[in-house]
């Protein structure tokens, strides 16, 4: 078969299926023509619909070529970086470098995308790629290389390095700003996110829907309703399309800021909803003490043929916990695994312990933790300890001793565990054990972390820290609290539990 005819057969419509290409591949190998026509075969394979389905074959083809060019690597890296196994993209990049090729501006963004998905263990490679990009001038030549660098550093938990890349950019697009904002929000630096957004507006960059998704998320995490309302108002004023993502972010923000009725109105008006929209509303109901509404909405969700995800069930378990719906909690935990095939995460186990423990089923909660198929983390044990504190009696002292031993083994330096244990022993009259817990804290040099709360007044968030009287309104707030305390004493007896030291 002539080379020109083979070339036309591979590149043309006559070889439009994978079986055909496999036949041609076999012919090229047996005829010795694979070195000259293998690259054409690879390009044709990648051009087929759903290239991710043919990635293993394409990967083998590339690795079997004698001297593949950089553009062939660049052709395969994007689908590999988005594949279920991004480590193949990282390995291909290392193969490229060992072959003496220098990556270009088309190579690095996809490599960095793969490394971001492999975070945080990929941090050393991200640093190496960054150094190479600076050396070759790619870190400043095109914006999508530093954008990808920021995303990779952020995924590795290196926000400072991500912001450094951002600060060194000679030119920024709205994608650059959004990447930096997302990095701040993703690393729980929501105040910095707001500051950066203000800089974005001052720089004259025009926010897009993605910008406001991030800002609504930041407002939700901070509980800053004024900021959330402003961001939502900007979406309307700028006549931006209320996309599914934007609508979901707005529902989430209003729910987390306590205005559930407004969140529900938004939810009901949305023309389309996905699993995250339904979940945001269910979690919103749960967090605001509206358990029955959360369960009813879940029933509507199932009728709408939307498959719940792991966060949906977390919200349902939270609702059951606060409403004392133990049987429903057990049912949801079972349904999550055996109906929807969702493997419980540690947060689900902790939530289930809270469902049982908060409702006084301490022994069942302890047996549940002991019977977990994975080793319980400190949060799970601490949740059980908090339940013991809520229902403290001499009947639970054996469980407290066991939980204390496990927590001291996992977190020997966490002062809050000692404080909780000491408080429980005090409440049940075990003064010697309470004193011992305090003594261990004192001798270990551990101090209780100061309690902290915040309140939003007039669009400003005011923080209050135990022992800090530097706030200008401190003495006025104390007078009001004293008056409230006197009025409460007139109404009902004081529960001594309210005045017990809380754990951090």
TrEMBL record:
UniProt KW keywords: Repeat, Signal, Transit peptide
Pfam families tied to this protein: E_motif, PPR, PPR_2
Gene3D superfamilies reported in the protein's UniProt record: Tetratricopeptide repeat domain
GO BP: RNA modification
UniProt xrefs under InterPro entries: E_motif, PPR_At4g14850-like_plant, PPR_rpt, TPR-like_helical_dom_sf
Transmembrane segments: none
Secretion signal, residue range per the UniProt entry: 1-15
GO molecular function, one term: RNA binding
Domain of life: Eukaryota
PPR repeat copies, ranges: 142-172, 173-207, 274-308
Presence of keyword Transit peptide: yes
PANTHER family: PENTATRICOPEPTIDE REPEAT-CONTAINING PROTEIN
Record-linked NCBIfam families: PPR
Protein name as catalogued: Pentacotripeptide-repeat region of PRORP domain-containing protein
Origin organism lineage: Eukaryota, Viridiplantae, Streptophyta, Embryophyta, Tracheophyta
């Amino acid at each position: 078969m002539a080379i020109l005819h083979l070339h036309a057969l591979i590149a043309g419509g006559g070889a439009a299926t994978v079986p055909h290409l496999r036949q041609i591949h076999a012919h090229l190998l047996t005829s010795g023509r694979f070195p000259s026509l293998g690259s054409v075969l690879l390009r044709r394979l990648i051009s087929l619909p759903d290239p991710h389905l043919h990635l293993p074959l394409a990967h083998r083809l590339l690795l079997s070529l004698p001297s593949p060019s950089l553009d062939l690597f660049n052709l395969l890296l994007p689908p590999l970086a988005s594949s279920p196994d991004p480590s193949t993209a990282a390995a291909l990049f290392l193969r490229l470098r060992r072959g003496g090729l220098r990556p270009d501006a088309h190579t690095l963004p996809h490599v960095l995308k793969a490394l971001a998905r492999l975070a945080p263990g990929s941090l050393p490679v991200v640093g190496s790629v960054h150094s190479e990009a600076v050396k070759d001038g790619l870190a400043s030549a095109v914006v999508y290389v530093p954008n990808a660098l920021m995303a990779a550093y952020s995924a590795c938990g290196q926000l400072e390095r991500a912001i450094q890349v951002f600060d060194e950019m000679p030119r920024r697009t709205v994608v650059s700003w959004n990447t930096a904002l997302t990095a701040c929000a993703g690393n729980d630096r929501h105040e910095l996110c707001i500051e950066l957004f203000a800089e974005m507006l001052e720089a004259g960059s025009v926010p897009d829907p993605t910008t406001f998704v991030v800002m609504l998320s930041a407002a939700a995490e901070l509980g800053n309703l004024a900021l959330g309302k402003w961001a939502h108002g900007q979406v309307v004023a700028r006549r931006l399309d209320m996309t599914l993502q934007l609508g979901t972010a707005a529902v989430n923000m209003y729910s987390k800021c306590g205005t559930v009725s407004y969140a529900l109105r938004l939810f009901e008006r949305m023309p389309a909803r996905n699993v995250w929209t339904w979940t945001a509303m269910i979690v919103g109901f749960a967090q605001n003490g509206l358990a029955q509404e959360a369960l009813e909405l879940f029933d509507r969700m199932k009728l709408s043929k939307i498959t719940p995800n792991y966060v949906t069930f977390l919200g349902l378990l939270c609702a059951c916990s606060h409403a004392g719906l133990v049987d429903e909690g057990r049912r949801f935990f079972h349904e999550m695994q055996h109906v929807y095939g969702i493997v419980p995460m540690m947060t689900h186990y902790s939530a289930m312990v809270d469902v049982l423990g908060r409702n006084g089923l301490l022994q069942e909660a302890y047996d549940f933790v002991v019977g977990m198929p994975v080793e319980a983390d400190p949060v799970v044990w601490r949740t059980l300890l908090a339940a013991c504190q809520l229902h403290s009696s001499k009947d639970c002292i054996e469980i407290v001793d066991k939980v204390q031993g496990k927590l001291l083994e996992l977190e020997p330096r966490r002062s809050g565990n000692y404080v909780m244990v000491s408080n429980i022993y005090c409440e049940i009259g075990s003064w010697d054990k309470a004193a011992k817990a305090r003594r261990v804290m004192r001798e270990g040099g551990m101090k209780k972390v100061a309690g902290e709360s915040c309140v939003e007044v007039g669009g400003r968030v005011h923080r209050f820290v135990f022992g800090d009287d530097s706030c200008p309104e401190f003495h006025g707030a104390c007078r009001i609290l004293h008056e409230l305390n006197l009025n409460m004493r007139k109404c009902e007896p004081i529960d001594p539990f309210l005045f017990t030291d809380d754990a951090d």
